[in-house]
Amino acid sequence: MSAPQCFVGIDVAKAQLDMALRPTGERGAVAKDDAGIATLVARLQAVQPTLMVLKATGGDQRAVVAALAVIGLPVVVVNPRHARDVANATGPLAQTDALEARALAHVAEAVRPPPRPLPDAQTDELRALLARRRHLVAMRTAEQNRLGSAPPRLQTDIQAHIIWLNTRLAALDDDLDTTLRASPVWREREELLRSVPGIGPVWARTLRLDLPELGTLSRQRLAALVGVAPLNRDRGTLRGRRTIWGGRAPVRATLYMSTLVAVRYNPVLKAFYERLRITGKAAKVALTACMRKLLTILNAMVKHHTPWQPQGCSVHSQVPLTIKTVAPLVPRFGFQPRLTPSADHYTHL
Questions:
Q1: How far is residue 173's CA from residue 156's CA, in Å, rounded to a whole number?
Q2: What is the pLDDT of residues 135-194, one digit of tens each?
Q3: Could you tell me the sign of the dihedral formed by the alpha carbons of 288, 290, 295, 300, in that order?
Q4: Domain ranges of the chain
Q5: By 3-state DSSP, what share of the chain in percent is helix, strand and coil, each rounded to 5?
Q6: Are 296 and 223 in contact (CB under 8 A)?
Q7: Which CA distances in Å does 250 have to 3, 83, 254?
Q8: Which residues of the chain are modeled with pLDDT < 70?
Q9: Residue 173 and residue 312: Cα distance in Å, rounded?
C-alpha cells in the first residue's frame, strides 16, 4: 500500500517559522535562524511530505526554500494573495502566523501548485541587483519631482542626492553588464533579444531575469503571466468591458516603456499601431495590443532561437490600409492619416 500523503504549509515571519501539516493537523514553530532551519529540515525530511507551500515574503523565504530544495523536498513559493483568498474562503477572518501556516497547508492539499525549478545563486543575486536598480530609479524620480518645488536651501541637497543616485545606477548597470557578458549563454540570449528594434539593455535584462518562462509557454499563457491579456468580465446577460490586470508588474512596466520606443522605430509594430489607431482604437488600447504583439514576437524568437527578421514576421493584413477604409475615419480624428505602403504586409503573429 502507498504511504499516506502529507501536505505542509510554512509561514515565514521575521523571528520564527510556523509549520502546519495536513491532514494530521500537526503544528510547530522554530526560530528563524540556522539552528531553527536545520531542525525544520530534519523534521520534514522524516515526514517526507508530498508538497510544501510557502508564500513570497519579500525574500525572507529564500533561506528556508534553499535548505529544503537541497535535500530534494518538493517546495513551491506561491503568491500571498492566492493563499489569503483560500483562507478567506474557508471562513476564518483572523490572521496569525499559525493560521497562515494552516492556510498554506490547505493550498498545498487543495490546489497542489506544481513545483518549479529554483534559480541558482547567481541568478538570484542578479535579480536582487535588478530590483535594487528599480528602487534607485524610483528614488531618483521622486527627488527630481521634489526639486522643482523645494525651497532654494534644499535644492542643493536634492541635486547632490540625484548625482549620487546617478552614480550608483551607473555602477549597477556596469555590474550587471559585466556579469551577463561573462556567461556565453546569457550573452547569446541578450544579443538575440536586442536584435529587435526597440529592445534596450534594461528590457533585455528584465526578460532574462524576471521572465525565465519566455520561450517555454504559449503566447496566451505568457500574455496572462505578464498581465497584458484582456480578461472577460461577463455575468449572465451582462457583457462587461475586457481589461488587463494582474501579472508581473515590473516586467509589464518595462515592456510598456520598450513598446513606446518600438511603435516609433520598429517597422512591424509601427504599422500595427497605426492600423489600430486608424480603425478607431484608443491610444492606450492600441499600445497594449502592441505590448502583447511584441511579447509574442520575442517568445517565438527565443523558442526557435531565431534573430529578428521583419520580412518573415508577417502575413497579409486583416484590415488593409486603403483610401476606402480610411476616408470615413478622417473627420473623426481631425487629421489626414498617413498611409504606409508596406503596412498591408504586417499583421498579428
A1: 26
A2: 999 999 999 999 988 998 899 999 999 999 999 999 999 988 888 888 787 888 888 888
A3: positive
A4: 7-110, 121-182, 203-345
A5: 60, 10, 30
A6: yes
A7: 42, 21, 6
A8: 1-3, 310-349
A9: 33
Question: Which amino acid is present at 11?
Answer: D
CA dihedral for 335, 341, 342, 343, sign (positive or negative): positive
Q: State how beta strands 7-12 and 51-55 pair.
A: parallel
In three-state secondary structure terms, 234 is strand
Q: Which CATH number fits domain 7-110: 3.60.20.10, 3.30.420.10, 3.40.50.300, 3.90.1150.10?
A: 3.30.420.10
Phi-psi region of 120 (alpha: psi -120 to 50; beta: other; left: phi over 0): beta
pLDDT at residue 272 in the model = 94
Task: For residues 257 and 290, give the distance between their C-alpha atoms in angstroms, rounded to a whole number.
Answer: 12
Looking at residue 73, the DSSP 8-state letter turns out to be -
Q: What is the pLDDT of residue 273?
A: 94
DSSP β-bridge partners for residue 104: none
The rounded distance, in Å, linking the Cα atoms of 288 and 280 is: 14
Buried b / exposed e across 131-160, counting CB within 10 Å, b at 16+? eebeebeebbeebeeeeeeeeeeeeeebee
Amino acid 207 reads L
Per-residue model confidence (pLDDT) at position 288? 93
The owner of cell 529578428 is 308
- C-alpha cell of residue 126: 542578479
The vertex-245 CA angle with 239 and 248, nearest 5°, equals 155
- For the chain, the residue count is 349
Q: What is the spatial distance between Cα 136 and Cα 134, in angstroms, rounded to a whole number?
A: 5
The pLDDT, as a whole number, for residue 134 is 92
Count of CB atoms situated within 10 Å of the CB of 228: 24
